[in-house]
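Invent a record, attention on tokens:
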Amino acid sequence: MEYLSYVYEKIFGGQAGDDADPQGAFHTPRKVICFGNVLLDRLVKLEDPELLERYGLELGSKGELEIEKLNQLATEASESSQCLTNPGGSALNTARILKQLGTDALFFGAVGSDKNAEELRRIFRERGIEARLQTVEEAHTGQCVCLMYKDNPTLYANIGASAQFQVQTLSHAVSHEGQSFLRPVERKQILYMEGFFVPQRSEVCDYIVQHLVRERRRLALNLSAPYIVRENAQAMLKLARLAFFVFGNRQEFEALAKAAGGFGDVDELAKHLLQAGGPKVIFVTNGSAGVQVITNYVEELAPAGPITFEDYRAQRVEELVDATGAGDAFVAGFLHAWLEKRSLGECIRMASNVAAKVVTQVGCNLP
């Protein structure tokens, strides 16, 4: 129990500021707006892979499970090992790290009307996480189980109420005085969308790109997982064409190149995206090997330039503890530096540095 208490303290840290309000009546539009699934995460360290084998789960895999099976898996895992519960979801992780870095972000998502939602709201208040949460009656709040075996995470989730997030939640906020979260189009603002948000919310995604993204109010997209890309290839390709920033690991880009059709490899896909119109920066992460940046970006407000490919080395990690939040942390580090008007190279180095620090902790959190 001492270990569990230590880890819990590490993730949640000290007390948040007094202005934390999960319902989000904020009068200053934030520079980053995040759209994603709201999950109550359970992290369990396994002593052996027997539980994975019994449930037919491949070590290191990601996917979705029916809520009954997910609850059963979480219960069995918790009985045999120490379990840590904390707020999760890719874009929510990024919003949390951004706040720790000093950039306030606003998060949009949906929860059920249950005890898990109450627990998440309490944590949001304590941590000062700014969120506008739609409550979906008769739906359960999303959950995720992360089973760690030999530092290799296996993640399965059921997004629950998150799948029922409605476009009216956004349009109402945009149109009502005192609730709008948008900055003027001539000022920098990032609308960040995780790939896990795309399935079942095509109307919301269309609203964001058609009505909110324009001029310096830019879309950033995270591909999130190979299975998300494979199962939603055309929707992801459409969003990637419209995004200013596209984040993903090599496996996710390879899945998109194959599933979207007509692309021989990641380089060919990247060239297609960059020729879709306007400047764009594509990040292909390769774990400990670093990140490849493919872009036609020259400088702010300048037209697209020639396509360039450049590799950046990853920051050295002395002791890897938990890599599950590395990608989310990379995005947070990059966006934080970008909004501070640093050069592209400086932003990438900041992103790599933040990711390297997060993987030394349990959960997606800075030390």
Remarks:
- Confidence is low (pLDDT under 50) at residues 1-25.
- Residues 344-358 form the longest helix (15 residues).
- The first strand starts at residue 32 and ends at 35.
- The two ends are 20 Å apart (CA to CA).
